[in-house]
Amino acid sequence: MLSIVIPCFNEEQRLPRTIEHIERYLDGKDLLYELVLVDDGSVDGTRMIMDAAAERHASVRVESLPRNRGKGRALAVGVDAAKGDEILVTDADLSTPIDELDKLQAALNNGAGVAIASRALRGSRVEISQPIYRVLMGKVFNLIVQAVLLPGIWDTQCGFKLFRADVAHRVFAGLTTDGFGYDPEVLYRARKQGVKIAEVPVVWRNSAPTKVSPIRSSVDMLKHVVRLRFRG
Length: 232
Hints:
8 helices, Spore Coat Polysaccharide Biosynthesis Protein SpsA, Chain A, seven-stranded mixed beta sheet
């Protein structure tokens, strides 16, 4: 079985379309799956949309945090609840379309324990780009991550990642950050455990607005990367 885990904070506008696309795609493949929606303390209509989806479709499950903790913590809760043999974590905006899943599954079938979508490799196709300042900040951040933590991985921050279930449960179980710095942490943990990480070029479309603060979130992520490196 495949588990898809989506962290959601105030996503009432984008979530219905995302749920519809995932259900239509996976139902068409006749694949056994569960969609784990994690409410990260939303204060809009996100939870009502989740509950309605769970009532309508037996494959949808809802997890929740009592207050907003951050993307990393919401994913840790969702992964802990996931029951699939493979676990896909993806963003509520579905910037990487769900039909790119086949490429990541092929990488797992070829021996990887983690397959991550990448916007930085030859063969990737960015159809709608981020603002130029965010593109540049992302490139600088990834160069720092390569130098400090994960040499050879060009895009740690794309939010579409497929894990073998045993790997996902191990690397998310002791997550030390609640926020956007979760990506380099779980990949660093996987690599330290000898897990093969495959970076896969995908189609990607920027979806506005974003909850990532260009300055505050970047500084928090950098601090977390440095702490991870020197903590070992």
